[in-house]
Amino acid sequence: MKRGILVFLLLFMAMPLTSRSVTITDFPQKSQLTPVTQLLTALNNDINPKALELAVQGYYNLKRQGLIRREGIVTLIDFDKPSVSERLYIIDVNNGKILQSALVAHGKGSGENVATRFSNKPGSNKSSVGFYLTENTYNGKNGYSLVLKGLDRGINDKAESRSIVIHGAGYVSQDYINRHGRLGRSQGCPALSMESYQQVIDLIKEGTCLFIYHNGRDYASRSGVLNPGTAFRSGRLDNPA
Fold it and tell me: What is the pTM of this model?
């Protein structure tokens, strides 16, 4: 009899409290993200699986917080790659598709062909890693441009005051690579080619998630986006550079 009661209690405890199913949106642990990243990396072997995993994880964390206004799109910029490679990817996370890839420049303070140094400081001319929310567009000194709001405190949250935006630049082209062995560099903005920047901006503007990745300085453990509710309250996210 006691054994029967014990079995019943165990079965009862194992039952869900509601009929609502748990999805990747609700609880994006690594094991649940793996099918998405496997599909995308199968479609494009150039994508770094670690960078993609973090990008998708951060996207779902921001989505759960209600910060994503245009869902389903993640832009990944992989600054582990040299500037001569396409290293910007616009990803349809719902269908596991690469919508567009492109060349993208890093800041002149971050390095030559490869970005190795990053900063949140005004005047550093360095790129900043981490998660961003795309905002409004405007026409400025670099033409049609897209405002970026840095979401990682102490890592990229000065992006707006630094005027870090997406814009087109003549130094981002295959012709420039052929002549100089690398892309030209910006003052910290992720600058795009004159052929692609308008299309990219229109595809990701007004509330999508953008992630700039570099495998260094233990970013994943310091990011408030990847560690919601903990890193934001700690003092660990002071300017890393």
Answer: 0.82
